[in-house]
């Protein structure tokens, strides 16, 4: 495990690109894991497995944001994630916490989280302050509507421009709240209030987000956008996920949020070997 004593911002300066962020769901109804990780032990076992597979950091979530999911109370979300975040941070694992609630942010940061991954882009009252005071990184993601209704009838004038303008405004709001640009990451939010055409458009023009001047995080792994293209069900989307990961990498993504860490790391190693974008570590095995 790399030392987590490295300041959060260093994540992007000391490592190869794109980074691989492994997904650890601690939600009974979590989408692709079907509640396998309902307990702390299951979650920790999975987390350490993902680190062994080569994850650069993990995204720990205690509230499912699947379409139609119902919100979880603060107490329940804290009960789910804190034991996992504390143990992982103690083991020098870089942990991102997927939450929109300021109270959960503050507790997660105190427990050792180095990033807050907010699908609501720090729009909840108190969220900007929690991250600014916590001194950690933040991922600002775009979502249209709420998980309960976001897929009912998503509408955009121009999905790429509309999402880009939203993210630009959130970056500005975060900077105004005292979060420096080097602690920010943006994310178009695939599947969060987007239909198939919107999702494809966003991936095709992902490079448009680079000029926002902050790293871009992408979460495509196993999502229904890929299932619609291949006709594969949720547990058979690894090939499509790898294809999507490489497209995102070619278009400049800096972090990939994935379920299948080893497969993604291997695919990126081939990509980096050809495009020479990896760190010395990537090619060390060939010396
Ligand atoms: C927390 N979180 C999620 S959860 C949805 C999910 O994985 N669904 C899903 C997973 C597997 C299969 C089907 C759907 N997606 C993102 C993302 O794209 N970006 C950022 N930053 N955070 C995210």
Question: How is the topology of this model organized?
Answer:
Elements: E1 19-25, H1 40-52, E2 57-61, H2 74-90, E3 95-98, H3 102-110, E4 115-118, H4 127-134, E5 137-141, H5 159-176, E6 184-187, H6 196-204, E7 217-218, H7 224-230, H8 238-250, E8 255-258, H9 261-275, H10 280-284
Helix pairs in contact: 1-2, 2-3, 3-4, 8-9
What can you see in these coordinates?
- The chain has 287 residues and is of the alpha/beta class.
- Helices cover 40% and strands 12% of the residues.
- It has an eight-stranded parallel beta sheet.
- The two termini are 22 Å apart.
- It binds ligand 8Y4.
- Residues 31-32, 61, 65-66, 98, 117, 119, 139, 141, 187, 189-190, 217, 219, 222-224, 234, 257 line the site of ligand 8Y4.
